[in-house]
Automatic annotation (TrEMBL):
InterPro entries: TspO/MBR-related_sf, TspO_MBR. It holds the Pfam family TspO_MBR. The chain crosses the membrane at residues 6-26, 46-66, 72-94, 101-122, 128-149. Belongs to the TspO/BZRP family. One of its GO terms (cellular component) is membrane. The keyword Methyltransferase does not apply. Signal peptide: none annotated. This is Tryptophan-rich sensory protein. Its main location: membrane.
Amino acid sequence: MTLTSILVLIGFLVLVFLVASGGAVFRPGPWYERIDKPDWTPPKWVFPTVWTPLYLLIAISGWLAWREAGFSFGLFTAYVVQLVLNYAWSALFFGLGRADYAFADVVALWIAIAATIASFAAVSALAAWLLVPYLVWVTIASVLNLSVWRRNQAMLAQV
């Protein structure tokens, strides 16, 4: 591996873990403990346990796509969009307590991840496949977000 390749990998890791910081900046407030959640809501410890390896896969996926094709607007547009939407979800859901806006965001996030997978598949099958667990988890998160929103519309309007 060249020095440039190592530096670009470090850059992807830093970028993705800056996005991950949204989960640390926007923490669940007291309102989150009071809302009605579905029985199948994962325990709190599951979220960092799942997200940590997913963020690592997101960074490696971007790096692999870069190694195969370099940086191009077309290749990385959806990748950057999904990173922005990923960060925004924490701000909308936990920061603002807006499960409705967060649901719209997570649907857009799902689409952006799927578009990234399609884009990366054209240059690296591995880069694309590394994003599939992320898409699966965001699918679960979407359904959970929708359920929380529907169960708590009146309360969340007051947060």
